């Protein structure tokens, strides 16, 4: 498995992009599906590269084609050996031996998030040292409730617990446990909640 190591940086703010799912509802590997002249995976990674220097992408051991696509980018590729057991295992793999100050958990099937949103979130944690967990949301409208989305930022004090996640719930239990420590920040970006489940989801709005 190809991996581009990154220099350890205890002051870094980075992104861990989870991409070890199985695309069961999509009908084929959605990560490799064409989108904007590239694949869904490449489009998502490029969005994050415009905002973050430090990026880890978590994939499965057998993802040779995806690995080849992503190996051209200055990112670290993490192989989650137990990805089949659920998202929690992929999350744990992404946080293993992590030396950053903050990590934003993102999803590889969310290529519509705006780079300006990612920069805004990164700048918020860099300028607010008291922050613990940062979560973006779309404010309620007359036709829809508040929608909370990705990426969710975590201070390094939570890394050990995140690296111990298992099963298929990811960080949801920790978000519930530390609900009082979450700072919700409003953004004007529907991309934070727009993931890809079926080919029709890739159609532009």
Helix and strand topology:
Elements: E1 13-18, E2 34-35, E3 38-39, H1 40-49, E4 54-59, H2 64-70, E5 76-79, H3 87-95, E6 102-107, H4 115-127, E7 133-138, E8 147-148, E9 152-155, H5 159-162, H6 172-177, E10 182-186
Parallel strand pairs: 1-4, 1-6, 4-5, 7-10
Antiparallel strand pairs: 2-3, 6-9, 7-8, 7-9
Number of helices: 6
Shape-level CATH architecture? Alpha-Beta Complex
CATH superfamily: Spore Coat Polysaccharide Biosynthesis Protein SpsA, Chain A
Strand content: 15-25%
| H and E order | EEEHEHEHEHEEEHHE
Task: Explain what you see.
The protein is an alpha/beta fold. The model is unreliable at about 1-10 (pLDDT under 50). It has a single domain (about 15-200), classed as Spore Coat Polysaccharide Biosynthesis Protein SpsA, Chain A. The N and C termini lie far apart (about 35 Å). The chain contains 6 helices and 10 strands, in the order βββαβαβαβαβββααβ. Strands 1, 4, 5, 6, 7, 8, 9 and 10 form an 8-stranded mixed beta sheet that branches. A two-stranded antiparallel ribbon has the order 2-3.
Brief account:
The protein has six helices and ten strands; from the N terminus they run βββαβαβαβαβββααβ.
Give the key terms.
205 residues; alpha/beta; Spore Coat Polysaccharide Biosynthesis Protein SpsA, Chain A; eight-stranded mixed β-sheet; two-stranded antiparallel sheet; 6 helices; 21% strand; disordered N terminus
